[in-house]
Structures are given as C-alpha cells and as structure tokens.
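step: validate -> pass
step: tokenize input -> pass
step: predict -> running
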Amino acid sequence: NEAVLQGMAPTHRQRVHNAAGELSLGGSLALLTRTRLLVTTDSGLLHFAAALGVDTVSLWGPGWPGSYAPKTGRHRALRETIYCSPCLYMADEPPCAGDNQCMKRLPVAKVLEAAAELLGIEADRLPQIEEPSLRTDYLPGYVARRSVVPEHLDSAGGRRR
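step: predict -> pass
step: emit ->
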C-alpha cells in the first residue's frame, strides 16, 4: 500500500491515507459505508463492500472470479490470462513460488479504466500510465498437485511397471 501511495503525484498523495492495519473490522466497515469505490483483491472487504452497495473492482490471479466475485451490484472483476492461473485450484503450491505473474501482468491502465467506468469518469481524462516492467526469472512449467499422483507414477514418484 505504501508503494502505491508513494507512486502518486504529491498533490493527490496529500488527500490519501493508508489505513492498512490501523482499523478494526468495525472501523473498516464504517469506512466502507463512506466509500464510493473499492479496488481490491479477492478479500473479505470485497464481499463486505459489495454487500454494502459500494462499487467494486476486484483483481484476480490465483483465484477464479467466476466462482467467487460478487454477482450483484456494480462490480468489475479483472484478470489476465496466464497459463497457470488460477493455480489455487490446480497446485498445492503456486508454480511461480510467489512471483505472482498473474497479478503483475494485470495492466494498471485496465484497472484505471474499470474504476473510471464505475465512477463515471471519461476514459480520455485518465492519465497515461507507464506499465511496470514484466522482466522475471519465472519460467512456465508443469503444474500439478503433489496430493494427486499421475497414473503413470507410483506414490514415490517413480514410473509404474
């Protein structure tokens, strides 16, 4: 959160407060009642905001919005197609070991466009965003649950005879 705040123009940063970790659940809910739009990941606050009628934009990668995104209200679920997403349902451990390529590849401009649409802001009024570099050491590979043994392997990982 602090990195997002520091990336804002100073004139806007003065009007934003990072309340992460400072509010109780009740305080968070009270804040949501005064919120016009919430941009978040699949979280409890997403679902509380949707239940309170707050417009929401949710960002998805390891999970699948078709199963868990709010179904009612003004909501936009965003994700980028990447071979291992949604890994939450395919692997015991994320194939990226926490590098979160599924989230990193979600363009900031796409998030801004969804937020602007819900807020009624003209798309041509949005700032031009320089997207972060996608350079990574992550190499796509085989995705499988350790708890599921493929038919051609025995429980120790050796080939069946």
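step: describe -> The longest strand covers residues 37-41.
step: cleanup -> pass
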